[in-house]
Batch of 3 targets.
Target 1
Amino acid sequence: MLIKGTEPFYYPGNQIACLLVHGFTSSPREMRPLGETLSAQGFTVLGIRLFAHGTRYQDMPRARWHDWIADIEDGWHLLDGYNRPVILIGFSLGGALSLYFSTLFPVKAIISIAAPYNIPRDPRSFFLKPFSLFYPYIPIHGQGVWFNQAEKINHIRYPNDSTRALAEIRDFLLLLQKVANQITSPALLIYSKNDPTIRAKDHHLEDLYQSINSQIKETLLVENSGHIIPLDAERTRVYNTCIEFIRRVVS
């Protein structure tokens, strides 16, 4: 059963299709306001739900990164990606997945928001799989940094991280780093200086920017946002930047 409010969404529109991918342990809910804004501009919008998200945290240990890529592939086919321009817009893990997906299927452009690229420099990360046998979940304390307090209250995510799923993300990021030079679609990379999760000091933006081979690659760095950039205080600026970027690459 889905948690109320975590349902996928679809807004029909013009020939330009936007495929929205949410972040780890969250749901399409965090991408819906962006989807509504894009729909109001006339674009067709599909917000997918990744496997084991929006249900219960006990489902997450079964998830593998291949499942999440398959979810994006389903959405891409639903939007008829071979016959129309599809813009991939992913947040956090969804951004990293979208970048990788663009090496497998044709996409018109990628908008990656607060995507992880570098792996935390913690030797314990290499032992997450065996560790998960004894400690399957890691409680999440607090709600992170928010500049928009109203959205902080409404944000939906699991109360625990799955240790096994964190290991899956680590393995996936290692793969993404290996194939990043195959990313050639126009790319917009959005990050926040005050993100406590994808931290500026870990150089995700700089290293990703240098790794991809897109002829068109742009960046936006915001300040008045924590990690959940699509819902936080500078979201209007982010939305407008996304719209302007899409219009340029499809013109």
Note: The chain has a mean pLDDT of 96.
Target 2
Amino acid sequence: MPFHPHFRPRAWSIVGTLILVTLFVRLGLWQLDRAALKQERHDLMAGASSAPPLTNASDLRGASDLIYWHPVDLQVTYLANVPAILLDNQVNQGQVGYDVFGVVRLADGAIFTVARGWVPAGDRTTIPSIHNPTGSIRLQGILAHPPAPGIRLGAAADVVESIGLDLLRVQRLDAPDLLARLPEPIGELIIYQATPDGGTARTVAPAEIEDGSRSRAYATQWFTFAAVTLLLFVFLNWKRRESA
């Protein structure tokens, strides 16, 4: 006997499929929007990194998204009354140590935080030999965002320890007690020094901005889920019916 296709899905399967497909498509579109934003920021970073260095303090007043990752070559002076800052528990080439930060004044009086380099930690009683350069010095590096603060695990994360003569040890750069000791809050952009100085052993690299490829892959994944859901809906509800 001949068979004829019979497609009569139940109401609950139609509603469930519509909900899932709509959800998957919306998630895919959201990832495409994220991909476009990431790609735009990545392209800005790539363009800035290959541009000539900014040499005037006034150039640093531009919009942060335009000068992000831009090289700089400036004359600066370290603030003598601000201790060097040791950011604890920083891994560099597989070794635990401190990222060292300082505060400088530019020629126009603007204040900037500088990521000066990295030093090994040793045990907790070992005090790194760090000193602030004196006088006007040449500072070469790139502009980028400060390190992400991460998750705050209790009040201990905000403790600021005074060690040595002119050193502060912190777990986070946004600790309220640390910010109270600085002449200005740490800005949206800081200068990552190109070469270590003042006792630091290695440079500190800022986090790069990824391009949109990962988000585009996630979008493809969500759109695939939507397509598979539709195919399963049709397959499971498409039945053969025997004709008379």
Note: Residues 11-49 form the longest helix (39 residues).
Target 3
Amino acid sequence: MECTRDIQLPERMTAYDALMCDAHAYVVVLNVDMKICDVSQSWCRFMSLERQDIIGKSLSDLLSAPVRQERLRLKEQVLRLRQPARITGMVKGNWMQTTYRPLLDAESQLTGLLVCATRPMFDDSDCDGIMNLRAHTHDLGALANLTRREFEILRLIAQGMAMSEIATWIYRSQKTVESHRRTLGQKLGAKNGPDLTRIATEAGLLWMSDDDFNGLLEVMHNEVDDKDHDASDLT
């Protein structure tokens, strides 16, 4: 715990250890200079980086270009107001709920910042009185290569719909839906339907609300092949 010796942490370190090791949360701790001084192993795995490659860096070093400015503005607001805030959006193709908490000493002096991200399985964001925001910018990761239609079909697959049901739902032929499923597999490296379901579930498509999903559809840039070229489609 040497790297956090200058930060005001709970007296009972078991609470800190539980957060870092047992809670399956992605945790980053920044010191008063806003440099990373501790990080959970789960965050290292999520970022595909070794711990020694993260310690000492700034938060912006961990954020991808699509979301960097919005998240950094939120961080500055949290530090200015000394109040926690939460933002929900896509990070590396995963639907994440990230809470920024200022770390204060007994005199309410800032000693650092705690950033804790989780994959929300239901929306409990209003249960604790923390300011909650929906992100305006998203890092879609590998999902950025999908068209809007493929993105929609991926979610319906995760919801357990058969190809025939999806075809009826989106007013397209089953042949077209099967073609989209094959393209999804190629783009996402999925060998079969269960693989696609796993990818969609890990991305959070199964848990997000319809409003959130539709909001993601609006920000997707790749719309080139959203047109289905099957003469038998129901239109």
Note: The longest helix spans residues 65-81.
